Predict the structure.
Amino acid sequence: MNEKIELIGLSRDELAAELAKLGEKPFRAKQIWHWLYNQGVTDFSAMTNLSKDLREKLSAGYVISRPKVVARQISSDKTSKWLLEFADGQRVEMVYIPEEDRGAVCISTQVGCAVGCTFCHTGSQRITRNLTAGEIVGQFLVARDAYNEWPTPANETRFLSNVVVMGMGEPLHNLDNVITALKIISDGEGLAVSKRRITLSTSGIAPKMTRVAQELGVKLAVSLHAPNNELRSKIMPINNKYPLEEVMQACQEYQKIVTSRFITFEYLMLDGINDSLDCAHQLIALMKKYKIGAKFNLIPFNPWPGCAYKPSSRNRVMAFSRELEKGGYAAPVRVARGQDILAACGQLKSKKDEEDKKK
Ligand code: SF4
């Protein structure tokens, strides 16, 4: 017997094509889309505006699934972290970071990562595979289920208001699936997270950044972490392949297409490595040279067992931030969240994988 087809993650056109195979008109796809992504149903029998006959055909040939929740930790500051498992047993992490009246869900795009940034715990886990579009969207659906945010309210007062594609993996190494997934997440007749509230973070895969601007137009964050090629290549070996000049030119292109948005440059503060005032001056010069509408996000480093770096002192981080601001760039320091729940990306997965091996 053929395996059932997963509906979560199909684009609108793909869903319509499946319905056409069943002899149904395109408006049925629209109705089902609404059930899947506005109402969050996981059972065909709940789709009450479809005929009984169609519901039966759908349950015979299709499924609506969610990733399995293997573990969930909730920090004292209400940050929530899930370890999710897919049908083949592969696992990724997802995090929800609540603010007062809104919050961001941080989703993963790959199991492991091939980029190998030296400060990153996920980077030490190698790449296993790309996630499908359904597995990427499925993470957000799990968060919606957990916070009972169904149906999708028409107004903007929901808690899961933002999506950041900043979890495990390099999204631009899995771009086709990421594009499909983010189009689903931003679709106004479904999950309806506006593109202004979606941020995609890349390590700087320069040749693919323009496609993100053209096809998605979401906010862009670039992991910079160093102001020159020599230092960046040491911290992020991907810089040997796509050096700063190429990354900055790709940022310029991005801003020609997505004109209204600043690009956020993520900058991890590593003690004695990239946190001198001279580094701040070089960053300012770099942004001015390429005329990028930029802001910085200074990130206190969250060390993990076996890592080679230490976090910069608070004083050093603040001095660095002030220097960038003097140069004309906003440079807030990210507040560390979920410190008590192994918040560094990839740590919960490693810990659970080890525990499960011992069983
Ligand atoms: S920081 Fe991102 S791109 Fe770099 S190794 Fe980690 S997951 Fe991959």
User: Anything to note?
Assistant: The CA atoms of residues 249 and 290 lie 7 Å apart. The first strand starts at residue 5 and ends at 6.
